[in-house]
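Here is one chain, start to finish.
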Amino acid sequence: MNILKIEAGHFTLAQLRALYKEPVKLVLAGDWKTKVEIARKTVTDLVDRGDTAYGVNTGFGLLANQRISAEDVEKLQENLVLSHATGTGEALPDNVVRLIMALKASSMAQGHSGVQVSTIEAILTLIEKEIYPIIPEKGSVGASGDLAPLAHMSSVLLGYGHVRYKGEIIDANEGLKIAGLSTLQLGAKEGLALLNGTQVSTALALRGLLMIEDVFAAATVAGAMSVDAMKGSDVPFDARIHAVRRQQGQIDFAASMRSLLVGSDIRKSHETCEKVQDPYSLRCQPQVMGAALGVLRQNAEILLTEANAVTDNPLIFPEEGDILSGGNFHAEPVAFAADCLALAVCEIASISERRMSLLVDPKMSGLPAFLVQDGGLNSGFMIAQVTTAALVSENKTFAHPASVDSIPTSAGQEDHVSMATFAARRLKDMAENAAAVIGIELLAAAQGIDFHRPLTSSKPIEKSYEMIRQRADFYTEDRYFSPDIEALRNLVLSSSYLDFVEGLVPSST
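Its structure:
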């Protein structure tokens, strides 16, 4: 198992990608325990003095004015966790749960949450031992934190609920025993610190970002392959065109296209052709994909900031001895970021579908109709293009912004919410749809390149071609097509195309 050592609140995107991709032992560097202990003392001192602070010795939400006696403070925290474990739906996958736990541990280790060191250490141990709480995916509105899903994570520490260990779902107490842990006795404020926060929304949005980066990288290569397959022009990728537009994403994407196409014999074979301009889906790739790249970069920064943030409530500021009630648990930044990412992945798939439409149209591509010989007898890629159209249309519906919705909760006390959890969760479906669209375009572009043999394309495109042909043979006649599409969808989502666009997407820089 790899060891990932970070200072609390200082994850990089590359580290978050590594954490998402495979199990790690997460080690917190620096003097975090001292910070946590000082903040914890601020909380216990308040209780000992008999002062009042929200969530420490009061009820929650609309019940904030209800004072809790000193002897019931610990029971209050346990009640909070158990009563808030109200999630429903499928369990989140282990890699997302691992991200959630890591973000929560990092947040609380910054010394503003007032928890015990042992609480953070217990979460780190579960990560190391690959024991993942079963967290239902639905039930959070993305304000007051991701209360229900974080309650399911936290209830495991108390011996309630279930965990997944080595692929099997077992009782929480059995999981704690395997990890060498005892059930926690939560102190004042600890339950609230565990439940408040945007870690679930953020982890889901990070999953979406990382999947969309994989889709973007594959779509970049697919676009270049389609240009060569259709003997398109590389003039639209000339650096001078993009320099005067000044959009950095566009500039960088065009540079990537030039590097993907350089050295292609197919391109050299039509340098003197009479074609003046290609359709937009070929010619305007830098403008469309460059804009999408800008969205990825901007919102990756927002999500990285959120991943390293302290977002529970109230917050402890030991130097001043203050416990301040605010609203860092409101996940509006995550909701906006997720909505923007949804727009980007929608467009990435949309322009790919248009290139696919060109590839199967002999009038536009100069290739055999539907990319198969003996058309009529064979339908070729006809319905594969229909599949791309269906998936793109579905993504358009998914792309409606979730952040513009709100619904009051907690008897009106929590009267505006972000809906960030759903905004982030739906990115997975959108990315998987887009991956299938890009996978189909890669199949079609490889088919088009085969029709130009013995001419070869550039080294990068030929490498992509080999990756495709390892999974799907040349389409000589109609065959059961679905396995080829599934294989290419999986290839797109495997991160294999990130090497083709090194340094282009946020988590690779």
